[in-house]
Specification:
- The protein is an alpha+beta fold and 639 residues long.
- The protein has 26 helices and ten strands.
- α13 crosses α14 and α17 packs across α18.
- The radius of gyration is 25 Å and the shape is globular.
- 44% of the residues are buried.
Length: 639
């Protein structure tokens, strides 16, 4: 904290004679240097409460994060620093800046305006208070989700249909211990034929932290709306979208409404299939058919549709995805595509024995590029989803020394049990590819200024680079590199590969309509001053999907995206898919799925700039034209 405070004080300190000389070196380079030094310290202190196995260290990390966040708000609200930045921007040297330097000073001044530093002292103090409270809410909300530890002890009859290998790994005193962690929850929801068991777990899953986090999210929505009003924006959504590709909530609303209209016929066909399957199951397993699809039915019948209509047996398929083979194949593909070399650092510092560290070098020049960690398995107190955390950004200091980027892929994949290796589902493989795509964005970015480092692009573009790389897990050539049967090392049969590729559009209607629903819920609560998150979520479920939320639940209470940076921006997952599909189809689809030349072009045009250029300009550089939605609509089966 003192490092940041010193940098701000030095920036505004007048030398003897009382004249403050403002130049690119004394303003931009100076601030960038101090950001490069302080950011890794702050990132690593915060990171520990997501991953460290020691509860005391997680608690200390949370406490440190709150202090750092409070201090960060104080620094953001320094009007004296803002005045210096604005003066430099309007000076002859500031006006003559070009390229990334101009983008940097303009962004710093714009951030100051968006923090209200041009307003009166009373408004500035209120914004400061709101920012500090929002920061605490975010930290507490995430900690509550990470600490959630509900378990169920269920019988074999209650878990009928769940694969034997799963049950064997969860046996306890003649029953089976099931948590709400992803590796437990999703397999049961997909395979258990007993509706009451699925309902029991889905109700608990969508009720996680509801007593505390629902109130926190509602408070956050109210504070965000109040801040937007002080700053002169109609709503929080208008405030957030100003710096995004979409620009306005009207654009987002029209995008989601148009997509919903296109998706609903496909979603309705999916629902009719689910109802047909449910009627058959009711007769076979002896439960009463209520003739509707409930929230606890979705994953079960989505899985059944893939099996029945596309003959994809995901239990059989996962036998070809042992974790070691998938990891080896993934690393090989990324190295080949991006002209990189990965080398495991055996004695590197880690926070848990399951964690591994890798050094990344350029395979053409042997120059160091950066480092990444893999932390793939669940444990108590750990971050409960899958994400890539940026720990340190690239920076070249004035003396020529280089600070290399470091990031961590954190996930909750099945862990090996005894002599049997962990087996990934195909969904797991896709998730791994996605998050590792974020890692490559962090590692390969070479923006000059830390504010544009790694994945710091427009939020509604940030998913596109990783989404584009998901395509490899649906193509035969890379899939062969990612798979071998865990018993005999045999390859996936060609007919199974063909069926898997064809099944990509299975459930596309209902899956993407759910994404539209979540994005619409996000826009709904962030375009008004107050909300009831459970009630508003239920309204979105019913109006868009035609299925109400399970009574008594509150899914938003564990919807961390809307607390930790995706507020008013969840639509970005669908928005960015337009660009990811175009990039894949237009370049890799035509030039070769594993073409190193195309991969290098992708690295240079999309990954290396970080946020130093507008996303649209990066896309034009890579595509050689403006992007379009044709490939996206084809991928969704809508053309």
């Amino acid at each position: 904290m003192q490092l940041v405070l010193n940098s701000c004080s030095a920036l505004i300190q007048k030398p003897p004679g009382g004249i403050l000389y403002l130049t690119e070196k004394t303003v931009l380079d100076y601030l960038a240097t101090h950001s490069a030094k302080s950011n890794p310290v702050e990132n690593n202190l915060d990171f520990l409460h997501h991953v460290h196995p020691d509860e005391e260290i997680r608690e200390a990390s949370t406490a440190a994060d709150k202090k750092l966040s409070e201090h960060s708000v104080e620094m953001q609200m320094r009007k004296d620093v803002f005045d210096v930045l604005h003066t430099f921007q309007q000076s002859s040297e500031g006006l003559a800046l070009q390229g990334e330097a101009k983008r940097y000073i303009d962004r710093l001044v714009k951030n100051g305006l968006r923090n209200g530093l041009h307003l009166n002292e009373e408004d500035r103090n209120e914004i400061k208070r709101i920012k500090k409270r929002l920061s605490d809410i975010s930290i507490d909300f995430q900690k509550n989700v990470n600490d959630e530890n509900t378990t169920f002890l269920l019988t074999a009859e209650q878990l009928k249909g769940v694969p034997e290998d799963f049950l064997d790994s969860h046996e306890k005193d003649g029953k089976y211990l099931i948590t709400l962690k992803y590796p437990d929850y999703f397999p049961v929801q997909k395979k258990c034929v007993i509706p009451e068991t699925r309902k029991l777990l889905q109700t608990a899953f969508d009720s996680r932290c509801k007593d505390v986090n629902a109130k926190l999210m509602e408070e956050a929505v109210e504070l965000r709306a109040k801040q937007a009003k002080i700053l002169g924006y109609p709503t929080h959504a208008d405030y957030m979208l100003e710096l995004r590709m979409a620009k306005t909530q009207v654009t987002v609303k029209e995008f989601l409404a148009d997509l919903a209209t296109k998706l609903k016929p496909s979603a309705e066909r999916d629902m009719q299939n689910y109802l047909k399957f449910k009627a058959e199951d009711a007769k076979e397993f002896g439960f009463e058919n209520d003739r509707k699809i409930n929230m606890w039915d979705f994953r079960f019948y989505m899985n059944k549709l893939a099996e029945r209509l596309y003959s994809v047996d995901h239990e059989k398929l996962k036998e070809y995805f042992p974790v070691g083979v998938v990891t080896e194949g993934l690393l090989e593909i990324y190295q080949q595509l991006l002209h990189l070399k990965f080398e495991q650092v055996k004695e590197g510092p880690t926070w848990h024995p399951d964690v591994s560290l890798y050094k990344v070098t350029d395979s053409d020049t042997s120059k160091t590029i950066g480092y990444f960690y893999l932390d793939l398995y669940p444990r108590d107190g750990k971050f409960s989803h899958a994400a890539c955390f940026g720990l340190q950004n690239y920076f070249e200091f004035a003396d020529g020394t280089v600070q290399y980027p470091v990031c961590a892929v954190v996930a909750n994949f099945p862990k090996p049990v005894g002599d049997k290796p962990a087996l990934f589902t195909h969904d797991d493989v896709e998730t791994f590819f996605h998050e590792f795509g974020h890692a490559m964005h962090n590692v390969c970015a070479r923006a000059k200024y830390p504010i544009f480092a790694g994945t710091r692009v427009e939020r509604d573009f940030v998913e596109a680079p990783s989404q584009m790389l998901e395509n490899w897990v649906w193509q035969a050539e890379p899939l062969k590199k990612l798979s071998r049967h865990y018993k005999d090392g045999s390859a996936i049969p060609e007919d199974l590969l063909d069926k898997l590729a064809a099944s990509r559009i299975a459930n596309a209607g209902i899956f993407n309509l759910r994404q539209v629903m979540l994005a619409s819920f996000d826009q709904m609560i962030h375009t008004k001053e107050k909300c009831d998150v459970a009630q508003d979520y239920n309204a979105a479920c019913e109006s868009i999907m035609g299925v109400p939320a399970t009574p008594g639940t509150c899914m938003p209470a564990s919807f961390e995206h809307l607390i930790d940076g995706y507020d008013s921006q969840y639509y970005g997952y669908l928005w960015s898919e337009v660009y990811s599909a175009d990039m894949f189809a237009s370049r890799f689809g035509k030039e070769g799925i594993l073409s190193p030349d195309t991969g290098l072009s992708y690295r240079k045009c999309i990954l290396e700039p970080g946020g130093s250029k507008d996303a649209l300009d990066m896309l034009r550089d890579f595509l050689g034209r403006d992007p379009n939605s044709t490939a996206f609509l084809q991928e969704k089966g809508l053309l």
